[in-house]
Each structure stands twice: as structure tokens, then as C-alpha cells.
Design goal:
about 120 residues; alpha/beta; five-stranded parallel sheet; 5 helices; 5 strands
């Protein structure tokens, strides 16, 4: 996918915004994110203008992957096979579709057999 090293789950982006040491190295990588992560970050109720600015600054350095029918089909299959929240199914489907490892701190993704998972331990 356009030279991306991995797909970052929303929690990885949140940790990056917080300056968490476990994700400091991602600045040296080409990071892809699902449009779902963009929605989750910016769709927070009561988000402040300065937060929007900081999030946009982070996302401009990422490859934001839009939702497309191929991802939808994989997400449907994942939902039929595993117990997943819809956003998680879409994020996993995006990583699978583009053959990218998914970097996350979320343990729910471990059950997905076709997913190349890099799990952060914090």
C-alpha cells in the first residue's frame, strides 16, 4: 500500500498523540491508517479546536485509507467468523486487504487468523 510499513490501529495513534514511549519509533515509519481511525479520533464529543489541529497534524503524516467495497466484503466475512466491533472489523479488513501488519495494543485482534498482528505491550 503506497510504501506503508504497517497499519496503525486507533489506540496506537492515541498513544502517539500522548507521547507514549512505546510508539515513539513510529515517526520513522511510513504509517497507514483506516479512515475509521480518522473518524474515531476526530469524532470525539466535545473535541477542542486545538485537539483537531494536533490530530490533523498527525494524520497528514499518515496514509489514510478510505473505505472501499473490497474492505467492506472482508469486514463482513470477519464479522461472520469472529465476534468483533464493526470499527475493529473494518480496521482488520483494511490491513488484510493491503497485506499490511496491524500494530495495536488491542488483544481482540489476536483471534483473527489471517491478520499479521504486531501487538504493543504497554
Amino acid at each position: 500500500m503506497n510504501g506503508a510499513d504497517f497499519l496503525a490501529d486507533t489506540n496506537v495513534l492515541i498513544y502517539a498523540l500522548e507521547g507514549h514511549p512505546a510508539v515513539l519509533g513510529i515517526a520513522q515509519c511510513s504509517v497507514a491508517v483506516s479512515v475509521i481511525s480518522e473518524i474515531e479520533l476526530l469524532g470525539k464529543k466535545g473535541i477542542m479546536p486545538h485537539e483537531v489541529t494536533v490530530i490533523h497534524s498527525l494524520l497528514k503524516d499518515c496514509i489514510v485509507i478510505p473505505f472501499m467495497s473490497e474492505i467492506k466484503d472482508i469486514a463482513i466475512s470477519l464479522k461472520q467468523t469472529y465476534i468483533l466491533k464493526i470499527p475493529d472489523a473494518i480496521v482488520a479488513a483494511t490491513a488484510i486487504h493491503f497485506g499490511l501488519p496491524l500494530v495495536t495494543a488491542d488483544t481482540d485482534f489476536r483471534k483473527i487468523k489471517d491478520l499479521n498482528l504486531i501487538r504493543l505491550t504497554l
